[in-house]
Write a structure and sequence with these properties.
Layout: H1 17-23, H2 47-53, H3 58-62, H4 67-78, H5 83-90, H6 94-115
Helix pairs in contact: 4-6, 5-6
Amino acid sequence: MNCLDCDKRKYCSSLCASAEEYVNQDYGGYTLWNVGDMDSFDSSMSIDKMTSFGDIPEEWLDSLSSPRQREILELYYNEGKTQKYIADLLRLSVGTVATYLKRGRLMLKKYLSIKD
């Protein structure tokens, strides 16, 4: 069960055991908190191309200033979740999720231009 299916989701203030288990679940050597492998990506690849492939490397995500922004980008690109799903899960509006995604992409583009 995840937070979307939980009867208490409107009132809880922290991850319950079920949500904690979901977040820490092993996905072939990765968890939601540990995604990406820099060795498998070309660092010269643009963020637009990278996001169209799906996974964003951990190193790029580390460049984000906001943990919330990182979480949203991981859920959207690395886990393939929809903006609506993320909004419901994190109790945000879809517009707020879209803004986090847009700003996150801009920050990642800036990071790539500085790194090159």
